[in-house]
Amino acid sequence: MLTSGFRVLASVVFITALALSSPATARKNVLIIGGAGDTGSTLAKILIARGDKVTVFVRPSTNRHRLEGVPVEYVVGDAMIEDEVAAALDGKNFTVIIDTIQILDITDQVSYTRLYENFVPLAKRMGVKQFLILGGGCNDRAREDCPLSPPLYTVAKNMTVAEYILRGSGTPYTIIRIGALMPGGPDDPDSGLRTGTSYLSTDLSIFGGIWRGDLIDQIIGCTGNDACINKIFVIDDPTMKPQLDHWLCKRSYETDTINFHDPRCGDMPPLTIKAGDLKP
What does pLDDT average to over the chain? Predict the structure, then answer.
């Protein structure tokens, strides 16, 4: 499933998840922002299993049940409050920072720009070797060229500004832009499955769909990987066109709110992969 190297097709560079085929590297000291959530906790478990040290940034009120029994360390604060972030990270040093926080309602107080304004200067100061973030599809595109609904386009544009904060800081970065992430919720019983056919591309014109399990694989593949440093990728999976079309159908009916289900679009087509390829 994970191979090294590059395949060139029609001027697009395809990069498959790289970590499992890469040479052994030194143990990473990783901070996961939002590490107690579904995506963050899954990443934490995999990174620890491969030998990395993991710290998760959580709010005081965060439920930590997904990390019960997992040997992580905690730093506590509100990611949107500069003084709390500074206090939580005082004296800490990390080689990699991964942001897994998902924000669907952008406000002056809660946004990706505020998040990176709080974390990026500290990352620069401590000499972080990689700051990995998840960007939005349609970044840098005009509204008429983007298939996102109005609320999701607002999120994507905020992500774009946040990307510039990171890229302009001089901190080594990796940005993985996501068009459509499926299934709808991280607690969906099928969210941990994967097709094994996703890829990362440097062709930023792509608007692709990705299953959550494959996204995890790609993040792991880039974590601590020099081939991903100072790169912006789009993630896609061409086998998921039926699911992407369904996802775009729901977006086409949205106005000011996000509809996780719309009867006019029916049910999402099932994920079509071989039974032997299913991985929890």
Answer: 87
